[in-house]
Amino acid sequence: MFLFGQGKGTLSLAASAAIRWNEASVKGCSRAAMPDAVSKLAYQTLQQGKSLVGLAHKELSTRLGQLLAADGGPKTVPVPPEMLNQLRASMDRLLELDWQEAERGVYPASLLFDAPWLDWATRYPLVWLDLPNIWSRRSQRNVRDLPRDVEPENYPGYYLQNFHHQTDGYLSDHSAALYDLQVEILFNGTADPMRRRLLAPLQRGLRAFEGRRPGQLRVLDVAAGTGRTLRQLRGALPGVQLVGVDLSAAYLREANRCLSQLPGELPQLVQGNAEALPFADGSFQAVTCVFLLHELPAEARQNVINACFKVLEPGGVLLLADSIQLADSPQFSAAMENFRRVFHEPYYRDYVGDDIEARLHQAGFEAVSAQTHFMTRVWCATRPREAAVPV
Length: 391
Description:
CATH topology of the largest domain: Rossmann fold
CATH class of the largest domain: Alpha Beta
Number of strands: 7
Largest sheet: 7 strands, mixed
Structural class: alpha/beta
Helix content: 40-55%
Order of helices and strands: HHHHHHHEHEHEEHEHHHEE
């Protein structure tokens, strides 16, 4: 497993930790506070259920792969017990902060329970049915197994791969339909709580334009994928204009399907390359980018940050959320190494040693700050009121 390792007792340890978390949250609550306590208990129970499902899936699929895959599965480094405890404690802090920020009104509490349960239930068997294809590609080291109708000239070369060994890479409706569920399993149900760590600093950054009505503000989500981050943004910023850009037409179709179920204005979805964003300079007050940088070679990483700078209005804010790195989370180095080994992530080794803050400064950003939440590092940076645009 990537997050919580392998070995006897992993699931029981996770379950006992979940029970302790529930008990601690309910103790000491007054009668007046019981409605909030009940809601919090419901949220924690939901998260614990997702965590256990993720752990069970990875445990079973790993063992099945060891039995049936031609290569016996990837060789991973041992995960020390103390790291497992640190991971669980870090996840608990993430979920506690997620609850607290909803309670403070950063975003509606309904986001805590927002998930396409029916879609996931119907698609979960497809995840299992796809495993033999993944094992086959991995054993053959075939990382260019893409749909025949893909036109390579429309994409940068680094994009034309089976990231995570997933079928069709990012270039089919089948891949888009399974992606969110696969990410939920990977992160034991914490993908959205990690995405939501953008929302509080984003709201603070938009105060630079507090004289404007919400409808006059524009927020761009770069590498919008299936729209999960846009969904969080819509909940926290109901009146703001939202735009999403992604290279994959298939993923944008899935995003349109999911986002069209929400009330209010539908976010604008645009197909485009994040290295050369198809928008006018200074046309957004905020830009977000989630889980993209680690899948880019170094040069493209800098190009994306430069492009985000260009489309921001002076005074605008950029929020990046991506994998933790060795500099900020050395205690989780084994988890990072296993992630690279288990999944096809050709640029991850370079990414975990990269200096993103230096790249932000190189692009021209100021007021750069960063925080770590479980497996995600979040950077916040501002385009100066007066600044030269990087070439």
